[in-house]
Design a protein that fits this description.
It is built from 16 helices and no strands. The N and C termini lie far apart (about 175 Å). It has a domain of about 110 residues. It is mainly α.
């Protein structure tokens, strides 16, 4: 009887073939749920070398398989925003650097002043303005007073010149009617001639 065992490769091979056939029958008949109930998942996970496993993963291939639009659709943005600490985020912003990067000309070009002005309530705005104080500080009353006095002075000078001219014309007419000799008449009133 030992001859058949030797021709088949020894007792180890015979047991291996027998175990393989038995294992195959067991796997076919046993339900996986029953086996999984007896598996210690935590112990199994503890035996896995994550770094070794990740070293075998092709990250580029994995990323190529991700559908970004579907991934974004699954993100609850409101929940995500609620979790952000805005004060902490703002504290990390360098405002001077941010302002330095702003193109003010371009920003001003994009502002629609007409639209902004249509939203301004001028009545409410002007109600709070001290117009009298504003006019006093602007110096407008002084300018008006100076202008008025200059205009009045100029008008008086003009009237005097006109009257002096009319006086000279009337004097010539009277001299002509009375046949007086014009050169013999004084060129100014006697008191003024004496002072000169």
């Amino acid at each position: 009887m030992s001859a058949p065992a030797e021709s088949s490769g020894g007792p180890g091979q015979l047991l291996g073939r027998l175990a393989g056939k038995v294992t195959g029958r067991v796997v076919e008949t046993v339900q996986p749920d029953i086996i999984l109930q007896h598996v210690d998942v935590d112990a199994l996970v503890d035996r896995i070398d994550i770094n070794r496993l990740l070293a075998k993963v092709d990250a580029n291939h994995l990323l190529d398989r991700i559908e970004v639009d579907r991934l974004i659709d699954r993100i609850d943005l409101e929940h995500l925003i609620d979790r952000i600490d805005m004060d902490r985020l703002i504290d990390q912003i360098d405002m001077d650097r941010l302002i330095d990067r702003i193109d003010m000309e371009r920003l001003i070009d994009r502002i629609d002043l007409n639209r902004i002005l249509t939203t301004v309530d001028l009545d409410t705005l002007l109600r709070d303005v001290d117009l009298e104080g504003l006019v006093q500080r602007s110096g407008v009353p002084d300018i008006v007073a100076q202008s008025t006095s200059r205009v009045a002075g100029s008008a008086l000078d003009l009237a005097r010149r006109q009257l002096a001219g009319l006086d000279a014309v009337l004097a010539r007419v009277v001299d002509h009617l009375l046949r007086r000799d014009t050169p013999s008449q004084p060129s100014a009133p006697p008191l003024l001639l004496e002072e000169a």
